[in-house]
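Re: [ENG-882] Designed sequences occasionally contain unexpected residues at chain ends

Forwarding the minimal case from QA. Structure tokens:
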């Protein structure tokens, strides 16, 4: 099975049905060196200026947060989806990847 890895400063978990938080448990997430928060707790894109951010989930929350992060100067946004890409052509530096499989330190591994 092909996999790849990438390092991140922050992870935003953007899953759950609108405002009902659901935080999936990915192997190693409890030992992630950066900050982990749910989309429900996202308030200000400015705090992510010049950061590499992973968004887990590919629905409205992830799209909205990804564009806000882009607008306020994030270094890179990666959206990790479970079933399929959104089909939207995001501006650079926003991209989509398959589902996160595990985290080691600041390195995230994907399908």
């Amino acid at each position: 099975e092909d996999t790849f890895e990438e390092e991140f400063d922050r992870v935003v978990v953007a899953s759950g049905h609108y405002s009902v938080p659901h935080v999936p448990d990915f192997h190693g997430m409890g030992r992630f060196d950066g900050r982990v928060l749910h989309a429900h707790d996202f308030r200000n894109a400015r705090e992510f200026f010049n950061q590499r951010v992973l968004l887990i989930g590919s629905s409205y929350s992830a799209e909205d947060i990804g564009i806000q992060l882009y607008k306020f100067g994030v270094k890179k946004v990666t959206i990790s989806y479970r079933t399929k890409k959104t089909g939207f052509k995001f501006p650079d530096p926003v991209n989509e990847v398959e589902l996160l499989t595990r985290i080691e330190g600041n390195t995230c591994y994907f399908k």
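QA comment: On inspection the terminal residues look reasonable. Residues 14 and 39 are 5 Å apart (CA to CA). Proposing we downgrade this to a documentation issue.
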